[in-house]
Amino acid sequence: MPSSKKSSLAALQPSNSAAALAPVYSMTGYAQARSESAGAAVIVTLKSVNHRFLDLRWNLPPEWEPLAPELEARLRACVRRGHISIRIQGETAPAAAALPVLNPESVRSYLRAHAELSRQLGSTEAPRVRDLLHAPGVFTLALPGAAEAVSPDQVRAAFDDALQQLNRMRRTEGEATVSDLLARCDALDRARAEIDRHRSTLTDALLARLRRRLEELLAGAIPAPERLLQEAATIAERADVSEELTRLAAHLAQFRALLAAGGEVGKKLDFLSQELNREVNTLLSKTSAGIAPALRISETALELKSEIEKIREQVQNLE
């Protein structure tokens, strides 16, 4: 393979350096490349969609199947995950590729007819080759198979071109997805901060409700302060969401760190989004009391769940 192709392909291959790992790639993409030479062309089409692993589906002529392991190695050096359909087909231009082929049976038929006519006419004149060459049907134009007309280097060149196009598209979509995910992380942080503001008022509201209920049960009598504080402490502990908020903040920090590091982060981000959702579910179960602060926390937590679900959909597109 020419050195220029090697360098351009190497630019798309992962490296051990942190800088090279920065890009995040989408698993969806499409590319098509064409290489022509001497009237013959090869067209390579690559289509990539989401998949848990790297799943390759080949569609190419039998003549090019020996090239498949080499081409697969090039693809695996650039792509880590996704269901990829690889279609390689050849074309030939009739005017440039048509070749004359002698039809022996037609020649024999003309010779038999000449012999029979000469016998009937009593002629001894021998058939002339020049006349036979101009006779209809003596020659036919045959088109060589496209796979036979295309060189292996043409196939390699078209494949490398398509692979570079595919990765450019995957990288562009990946960058757009990262921007969207970071914006959603900011929205989660704002919602988390809002819940934290309501958290302190929730404890006071629960204590006030407890005092009212105890006064009703005790017919207006003032409950013992120790008893009231004990019950208040139990309720406050059950309704305390500080741990969930702390874990949410930690998960979001890790989420951003993974996006910044780049590379093959899709599965890790999917796991983190599940953890985010789990914390919000726990938070909702702790704030089921029908009082104003709890209702505000629950409303904000439901917005969190909606945003996290959108995040989960997005990260499943990433490699």
Task: Report what the structure shows.
- The protein is built from twelve helices and six strands.
- It has 319 residues and is an alpha+beta fold.
- It folds into three domains: 102 residues, Ribosomal Protein S5, domain 2 (2-Layer Sandwich), CATH 3.30.230; 44 residues, no CATH class; 144 residues, Butyryl-CoA Dehydrogenase, subunit A, domain 3, CATH 1.20.140.
- The longest helix has 66 residues.
- The two termini are 28 Å apart.
- 22% of the residues are buried.
- The N terminus is likely disordered.
**Order of strands across the main sheet:** 1-2-4-3
Q: Segments where pLDDT lies below 50 for 5+ residues?
A: 1-21
In the CATH scheme, the class of the largest domain would be Mainly Alpha
Total beta strand runs: 6
What would you call the structural class? alpha+beta
Number of domains: 3
User: Within the CATH hierarchy, at the fold level, what is the topology of the largest domain?
Assistant: Butyryl-CoA Dehydrogenase, subunit A, domain 3
Q: Report strand %.
A: 5-15%
Shape: rod-shaped
Q: What is the CA-CA span between the terminal residues? A: 28 Å
**Number of separate helices:** 12
- Rg from alpha-carbon coordinates: 37 Å
By CATH, the architecture of the largest domain is named: Up-down Bundle
Average pLDDT over all residues: 80
Please outline the helices and strands.
Elements: H1 3-10, H2 18-21, E1 29-37, E2 40-49, E3 54-59, H3 68-76, E4 82-92, H4 94-97, E5 99-102, H5 104-121, H6 129-133, E6 139-142, H7 146-149, H8 152-217, H9 225-239, H10 242-261, H11 266-286, H12 292-315
Parallel strand pairs: 3-4
Antiparallel strand pairs: 1-2, 2-4, 5-6
Helix pairs in contact: 8-9, 8-10, 8-12, 10-11, 11-12
